[in-house]
Amino acid sequence: MTRLVLIGALLLGLLVPRVEARDIKIATLAPDGSAWMVAMREAAEKVEQGSEGRLRFKFYPAGVMGSDATVLRKIRLGQLQGAALTGSEASLVESNAGIYSLPFLLRDEAELEVLRKQIDPRLVERFAAAGMQLLSINNVGFAYLMSTQPIRSSDDLRGAKVWVPQNDRIAEVTFRSGGVSPTSLPLGDVFTSLQTGLVDTVANTWSGAIGLQWHTRLKYAVDLPLTMVMGFVMIDGKVFERIDAADRELMLRSFAEASQQTDERFRKDNVGAQAALLRQGLQLLTISEDDAMHWRAIGAQAAAELSRAGTVDPALLAEVEAVLAQHRGDAAPKAD
Fold first, then answer.
1. How far apart are CA 70 and CA 231, in angstroms?
2. How far apart are CA 75 and CA 70, in angstroms?
3. Which of 179, 183, 196, 198 has the fewest CB neighbours in a 10 Å radius?
4. How far is the C-alpha of 173 from the C-alpha of 301, rounded, in Å?
5. Which helix H or strand E contains 8, and what residues bound it?
6. Backbone φ, ψ for residue 63 (5° rounding)
């Protein structure tokens, strides 16, 4: 009897399909050790443990797999399964990835949190239609203009050598609308370009400037938030669909939890990084209210132009503006 049971168990084991381990290789331009990389590794560890090794992650940070366009091409070829990209980079997948990063769109991070409750699901749907499954969306923080020479006015900015990320249509349209002729370069070329003088003005978060070592070349920063930097972690939709349903749910849950922790880490990192940069001698410049109003108007003009061109979906932009208008109305001080 025992022998028959053992034979039956053996035959049953042969009939049940074996779930093979799946390797998920994710590339990013983010430096190793950054808040983003730390959170992704933590999420990956939870998934690997929870799936009992059926899902395994390998990360390629700091641009070792090439530019954003190169990484996306490698995903299409099956050499990589995913990527962690900023909004400008992710716009190569879905043009509306930069919707949160429209210049001067947001006044503070509280507005972003209100907006994300309604717009994040829209972006998940749009990325899925483009063949990518979003695992998380992250608030990296506000970017500020930083330079090797003082920028105290619009005229100073028009005379500067301004860098914009390659393929960042939003940044390019914004600066050109303001009379600036920017230089488009891959992220990996910026440090060398600051050294050689090809560019002298960049935009980044406080922690980003330190993480990429740009702060060693920069002397000034304009105390006016330019744009919100967002991060998108994604994997190939076809790869995602081939994963067992329970493991897919585990992956989404783990990366969502890590995303919340990442946002808080970025906030703390940016506060600490700004303080460190000021201690090291970076000068924070205040521009006039007239110049600030001028550049906010340029931002609105750029958003309208991007909407007309279809770079940003007009319906999605209208939804964003409606959510913000309602929030600002609700948050406005009430008269006695």
1. 18
2. 9
3. 196
4. 9
5. helix 2-15
6. 75, 20
